[in-house]
């Protein structure tokens, strides 16, 4: 026996969320009174709060510019590190080749 999934309008969701926020009652209490799933109402409340308070998720232009500069610097440092690693291997081989020729 399949259960039918109920659909709620955005207006209904907003009103349910406002009941939780404005009255200060628990999500579980409001959900029980409205006859909806507690987890669903909890998600609606969390989504509403996220829309109202985007907080620190936005990046300012100066932060974006610094981020780009730092990413370029990291890429340059990775190239430098790769070059130095190859150079150290080259010079280590040269040194071992030179020592081998001296001992013969």
Largest sheet: none
Q: First CA to last CA: what distance?
A: 88 Å
Structural class label: mainly alpha
- Write down how many β-strands occur, each being a DSSP E stretch of 2 or more residues: 0
β-strand amount: under 5%
Tags for this model:
104 residues
Structure description:
The chain has 104 residues and is mainly alpha-helical. The protein has 4 helices and no strands. The chain has helices spanning 10-23, 27-34, 38-52, 61-103. Helix 1 crosses helix 3 and helix 2 (27-34) crosses helix 3 (38-52). The longest helix is centred in the C-terminal third of the chain and has 43 residues, at 61-103. It is elongated, with a radius of gyration of 31 Å. The model has no long low-confidence stretch (mean pLDDT 88).
Strand and helix layout:
Blueprint: H1 10-23, H2 27-34, H3 38-52, H4 61-103
Helix pairs in contact: 1-3, 2-3
In short:
By secondary structure, the chain is mainly alpha-helical.
